[in-house]
Amino acid sequence: MSQAWFQHTFSRRRFQTQSQATAIAILSVAVLLILGSLYLSQVAAFAITNREIEDLISRRDEVKQQNERLIGEIASFRTVPRLYARAVEIGFRPAINDDIEYLVFAGYNPNRPTQPLAAAARHSAEPAAAEYAETFGGWLQAQFDLLRRQFQTFGE
Amino acid sequence: MPGQSTQQATIHARLPIVALFLIFLASLLIIHLANFQFFPRSVRQELERIGSSITNTTLRIPAERGLIYDRDGEPLTFNVVQYRLGVSPNLVFEAETLMKQLSVILDMDEVELFFKLTSDNVWEFVAGPISAEQGQAVAALDDISLGLEEIPRRFYPQGSLAAHVIGIVLDDGLIGTLGVEGAYNSTLAGRVMDLSVSNVPFDLPEDLPAEQRGQDIVLTLDRDVQFWMEVELERAVKENGAFRGSVIVMDPRNGEVLALANYPSFDPNNFLEITDPNLLVNPVVQETYEPGSLLQVLTAAAALESGAITPEWSYNDVGVIEIGGREFRNRYFQAHGVVDIAGVLTRSLHVGSAAMALEMGEEKFYNGLRAFGLGQATGVGLFNEDLGELRLRGDTGWTESTFGLNSYGQAMQVTQMQMITAFAAIANDGIMRQPHLVRQIIGEEGVRDARHSTVRRVLSPDTASILKELMVRAVREGAPEAYMSNYTVAGKPGTAQINTAIGYETGPNSSVVSFIGFLPADEPAVVAMVKLDRPDDFFGFEVAAPVFRRIADRLVILLEIPDDATRRELQAVEASLRAPRTEQG
């Protein structure tokens, strides 16, 4: 009786052991698959973002070049010979001394120092690069949002 | 059995020793393995280099060159990108299709293109420089056989305006030469960077660092004044049959150069098409000439300042004077009797200049000329400035008679910039300001005023005042062509013969004429110099003085200089406006 019970118990335990091991193995594989797919999706998202950044940088450079070219073109339209020719065309003529009347304004200094505005504007127009100030919490949130977006994409 | 137990006892006794030995051996291996992880620095660097050479590419990034502006912020230069196009014929898939597409974009002959696309070479140059639009159109074809290389180019929107001042840039926009581009190349050029770019697609792409860009330069040049000076100069050169000419306009109060014009000039956008290399020389600072009778003003200034003569000084002009065993005569061998300083300057008398020089002696004379900056670079901020030549006793070629010749501007070499700087010092009550073209430098840290100090006091205010009076008379009596009815003009014409290896040139078109003047004489706001080489007429008063007059007519309007009567009236009104405020204060 006791031997039969032992055999029965032993064989059950063996069965239980096998099924547990299989379950653990399957679970491990499943976890590994999830982690792997998460990793791969993260890396893919990162690579896509980098490509987008690269495209944006080249687009920005292109726009910058076009902008510089346009400013150059505007400057060539504003050359003195062109302006002079246009002024003559619409009826102006170079001033002579008799055309000029001088007036006195108290406190006005005709030799005041002037700031070349266009030149200074070129430097101030450049936007300052954003400071990197991401916290761990912010990073975690960003990862979570990314994950959520990916799941949403899978569902679509 | 007892033998077996003894053997077992021996094994048991030796087992710890063997185990210990094995543990020791394993420890050694582990330590060595651990040590293997910590390479020497040089080995680690080498391995890192090999590693990064696989995953990284080094790109040489040329810095964006700083721009140049006129004093009002009008741009005089721009940077544009052009492209060089090449093809790898081995990678061309459909030559005919590509040929047709490129032919439309580049406006090139189809046959020529076809030969390039089907060439046996590994790499074939197709076209360049091509415009940014064409480059972008080629890039849009997305053909792996095509390779585009960026070429930074300098664009000068004002064309030939102030070409000699601005200069040019060589070597695909990297090296400035001539003018401000050359003199301030290191400021404008920025930092060329070697940027290591990762080939790994997962790595974040590198953005160019902003701080490598060159600094911008704001010139003292006034674009409008420059334009009109160039217009008047071209007219003067053509009307007088001159070989070439120059005009410089300066504010004597601060040394700012407002205009610097040369004719003939060139378009810096197409400087590679220039056939005459002399056009790429700025004669104002890079070439010297004998100043001739212009120098008599400096001789008189040195004599008065040293106390060797007084304003009442005069001499008996018998038409000849001897210095160092050589006789010096006036032009046309005339004798003028008793002549004062004004007479010497008005009639440009060689004998009078030599007499003044003799009165002060050699040392004071040369000290005076050195004080005016002759024989030294002015430091105006232009490329490759010449020092001129002022030989002193002991120098090769100097003789006693050189002293006499120097007194009226012969046997010496000066630059035009040196001469106008010296005259500006007289206009500015004897204080010489540093002549300069750069007003401000703008970089990442903001706008920085270029520091330009006073060079030195050359003359006392009294001597400067006397000289101004003498120069007003020199215009009124000696060069009435430069006279202006409503402005008091101080000035002096100069005529110099052209010295060659076999002596001074004679005949037609054999002189260099000039005129330096400033106005209003009592409160100078502008000083201008005109110089024409080899005009049809010989003398400065008949050629250069009328040109100065025309230039001055323009300048008083452009620089808003009221005529003498209006200026005094304005000063009186301003004084009356200030008076009550002062009383209240």
Folded structure, characterized:
The complex is a heterodimer of chains A (156) and B (585). Chain A has 156 residues and is mainly α. Chain A is built from 4 helices and no strands. The radius of gyration of chain A is 38 Å and the shape is rod-shaped. Chain B folds into 2 domains: 82-155, Penicillin-binding protein 2a (Domain 2) (Alpha-Beta Complex); 223-568, Beta-lactamase, CATH 3.40.710.10. In chain B, the strands form 9 sheets. A 5-stranded antiparallel beta sheet of chain B has the order 11-10-24-23-20, sandwiched between helices.
Brief overview:
By secondary structure, chain A is mostly helical.
Oligomer: heterodimer
Number of helices of chain B: 18
Biggest beta sheet summary of chain A: none
Largest sheet of chain B: 5 strands, antiparallel
Anisotropy-based shape of chain B: elongated
Q: Whole-Å distance between the termini of chain A?
A: 62 Å
Overall mean pLDDT of chain B:
87
The parts of chain B where pLDDT drops under 50 for at least 5 residues are: none
The total of helices of chain A stands at 4
Radius of gyration of chain A: 38 Å
Helix content of chain A: over 70%
Shape of chain A: rod-shaped
**Spatial gap, N to C terminus of chain B:** 131 Å
Beta content of chain B: 15-25%
In total, the number of strands of chain A is 0
Strand content of chain A: under 5%
Query: Under the CATH scheme, which class of the largest domain in chain B?
Result: Alpha Beta
**How many structural domains can be distinguished in the coordinates of chain B?**
2
Give the strand order of the largest sheet of chain B, numbering strands 1, 2, ... along the chain.
11-10-24-23-20
Write the layout of secondary structure elements.
The complex is a heterodimer of chains A (156) and B (585).
Chain A: H1 2-77, H2 80-89, H3 117-124, H4 136-155
Chain B: H1 2-37, H2 41-55, E1 56-61, E2 68-69, E3 78-87, H3 95-106, H4 110-117, E4 124-130, H5 132-140, E5 146-155, H6 163-166, E6 168-170, E7 175-177, H7 179-183, H8 185-189, E8 193-198, E9 216-219, H9 223-239, E10 244-251, E11 256-263, H10 283-286, H11 295-306, E12 314-317, E13 320-323, E14 326-329, E15 337-340, H12 341-347, H13 350-371, H14 400-407, H15 416-427, E16 431-433, E17 438-443, E18 446-449, E19 454-457, H16 461-478, E20 490-497, E21 499-500, E22 503-504, E23 511-519, E24 526-533, H17 540-558, H18 564-584
Parallel strand pairs in B: 2-9
Antiparallel strand pairs in B: 1-8, 3-4, 3-5, 6-7, 9-17, 10-11, 10-24, 12-15, 13-14, 16-19, 17-18, 20-23, 21-22, 23-24
Helix pairs in contact in B: 3-4, 9-17, 11-13, 11-16, 12-16, 13-14
